[in-house]
Design goal:
Blueprint lengths: L8 E4 L5 H7 L2 E4 L9 H18 L3 E5 L1 H14 L2 E6 L11 H12 L6 E4 L2 H9 L8 E3 L21 E6 L8 H14 L3 E6 L5 H13 L3 E4 L4 H7 L2 E4 L9 H8 L3 E5 L4 H4 L6 E4 L4 H12 L3 H18 L2 H14 L4
Parallel strand pairs: 1-2, 3-4, 4-5, 5-6, 7-8, 7-10, 8-9, 10-11, 11-12
């Protein structure tokens, strides 16, 4: 967008990475956002801040993602007659079970995003759920291939030697992401196949899981890496990425980047993950919350011949190239820019 001569402002919380965007030619407007929880006073303040920013910049079009910029941004932009394109990058735990929070969020989507100019969805399951519950209008919906994958940055790499097989879990260490199933699988598989290692890469903020992971590491069937900025190198060292999430994903970047690298993906059969993994072709799917199902799929993978493993990795790479190249996503955004005649 900047290279095309457009002026780009980013409304973001304060972050060290903001300098990166400034160096690209973007202008940063630091905006306080309470990332978690529903606090009416803070949320009303956010709507006010968005209105102030919009009046100041007078944008031709607004792009947003994540729940609060989508909801409160469109409340502000709708009131000022500005076109906003929302990107539903996943729903997290919000709608996994009914409750007060889910009801409030549905109501907020109906009075905000439902009336926005356009909504991008990253998987058809989320799109259909939002339409069914009146949170968006079907005619305003379009699909994106997730956030896309930079296939040059995440280049294909042959699988490591299969004398020792490495698996990796990438993400926050929490129940929603399927850490219990991963730990159970790691123990069962390592006991039966000692030539395996199960890595965990990600933040661990919950005392319960800190203790579980520490015990698993002492027992020798888990290698906890913590949060890693060099995650690409760890994906390359592994044969298989496991994502046992319970749901709320858009299209998981960890699966896109792993498959692009030529790594086999084993994931729970949920919205988003099933878009990336072709069961038995590029990896395996199992029912969420089912540790035995995960163990079974991991065994299926281990028993493949070297040639079969390589073939599966290459099939995953081709799927990313054909369906999830980030160029497709950039093209969609640039098309919206051209349609509104931005200058």
């Amino acid at each position: 967008m900047v290279n095309g001569g457009h002026k780009v402002w980013l409304s973001l919380p304060k972050d060290s990475d903001n300098v990166f965007f400034e160096n690209l030619g973007c202008k940063i407007i630091e905006t306080k956002i309470s990332r978690r929880g529903i606090n009416p006073i803070k949320d009303i303040r956010l709507i006010r801040d968005y209105k102030r920013i919009i009046k100041q910049i007078k944008p031709d079009i607004i792009f947003s993602f994540t729940i609060k910029p989508n909801i409160y941004g469109t409340i502000a932009s709708n009131s000022l007659g500005i076109k906003q394109v929302c990107n539903i990058t996943g729903t997290g735990a919000t709608f996994l079970k009914p409750g007060v929070v889910a009801s409030i969020c549905k109501m907020l989507y109906r009075i905000s995003v439902r009336n926005c100019y356009k909504t991008f969805f990253q998987n058809t399951g989320d799109r259909d759920f939002f339409i069914q519950h009146g949170m968006v209008k079907e005619e305003h919906c379009e699909m994106l291939p997730g956030s896309g994958c930079n296939i040059e940055q995440h280049a294909f790499k042959p699988l490591p030697s299969t004398d020792h097989i490495n698996f990796i879990y990438i993400g926050r260490v929490m129940k929603l992401k399927g850490i219990d199933e991963y730990l159970a699988c790691a123990k069962a598989i390592h006991d039966k196949y000692p030539n395996t290692t199960f890595f965990i890469a990600g933040w661990n903020e919950e005392p319960e899981y800190m203790a579980k992971v520490e015990d698993a590491q002492k027992a020798g069937y888990i290698d906890y890496l913590g949060f890693r900025k060099d995650i690409d190198s760890w994906i390359e060292k592994c044969h298989c990425t496991i994502l046992a999430s319970y749901g709320g994903e858009g299209v998981p970047n960890v699966l896109l980047e792993s498959a692009a690298t030529g790594r086999i993906c084993i994931a729970s059969n949920i919205n988003g993950s099933r878009d990336v993994v072709d069961d038995g072709v590029t990896g395996y799917l199992f029912e969420k919350g089912n540790a035995e199902g995960l163990i079974s799929k991991v065994e299926c993978f281990i028993k493949l011949s070297d040639d079969e493993k390589q073939k599966m990795g290459k099939a995953g790479r081709k799927k990313i190239e054909d369906e999830f190249d980030r160029k497709f996503v950039v093209s969609k955004y640039m098309s919206e820019v051209s349609q509104v005649g931005c200058s």
